[in-house]
Amino acid sequence: MKAVKIDHIGIAVKSIDASLKFYVELLGLKLEGEETVAEQKVKTAFLPVGDVEVELLESTAPDGPIAKFIETKGEGIQHIAFAVDNIEEALKELEEKNFRLIDHKPRLGAGGKKIAFLHPKDTGGVLIEFCEKI
Ligand code: ZN
């Protein structure tokens, strides 16, 4: 497998609206789009910066994964996403090498990409997402 680039950095926030003040007004980024992924109980906002995007993540329910993350760790970087050229192959290879996968098969994420997460216990405590543009 080959990671092509860092696609985006996922940041858990209590409020996207409040966070935009920093990212848009101070850093000068442009809000490219907002999307709710109901299955993950999360609202996302994408702000490109160069070739990479900042993905703000706000929970839509108190029992969602982002709400739980903020409850235990506070707001902050939640995951790093690498673009790969073939996500199915990447997952297969990692599984063969005994990495624990959160998603054994890619699912549809924000922005219409195929995404899958690896377990942070096997990646030095970093939650890593793979994504592939369809
Ligand atoms: Zn992501």
Notes on the protein architecture:
With 134 residues, the protein is of the alpha+beta class. It has one domain (3-133): Roll (2,3-Dihydroxybiphenyl 1,2-Dioxygenase, domain 1), CATH 3.10.180.10. The chain has helices at 16-26, 65-73, 87-96; strands spanning 3-12, 33-37, 42-49, 52-59, 76-84, 107-108, 113-118, 128-133. Strands 2-3-4-1-5-8-7-6 form an eight-stranded mixed beta sheet. The chain is globular, with a radius of gyration of 15 Å. Residues 8, 10, 55, 79, 81, 129 line the site of zinc ion. Zinc ion binds at residues 8, 10, 55, 79, 81, 129.
List the helices and strands and how they pair.
Elements: E1 3-12, H1 16-26, E2 33-37, E3 42-49, E4 52-59, H2 65-73, E5 76-84, H3 87-96, E6 107-108, E7 113-118, E8 128-133
Parallel strand pairs: 1-4, 5-8
Antiparallel strand pairs: 1-5, 2-3, 3-4, 6-7, 7-8
This protein binds zinc ion.
Zinc ion (ZN) is lined by residues 8, 10, 55, 79, 81, 129.
Short description:
The protein is of the alpha+beta class and 134 residues long. It has helices spanning 16-26, 65-73, 87-96; strands at 3-12, 33-37, 42-49, 52-59, 76-84, 107-108, 113-118, 128-133.
Question: What are the key terms here?
Answer:
alpha+beta; binds zinc ion; 134 residues; single chain; 3 helices; 2,3-Dihydroxybiphenyl 1,2-Dioxygenase, domain 1
**Helical residue percent band:** 10-25%
- CATH fold assignment: 2,3-Dihydroxybiphenyl 1,2-Dioxygenase, domain 1
- Mean pLDDT across all amino acids: 95
Q: What does the radius of gyration come to?
A: 15 Å
Order of helices and strands: EHEEEHEHEEE
- Main sheet: strands, sense, barrel: 8 strands, mixed
- Whole-number tally of structural domains: 1
Q: Estimate the global geometry from the Cα principal axes.
A: globular
User: What is the structural class?
Assistant: alpha+beta
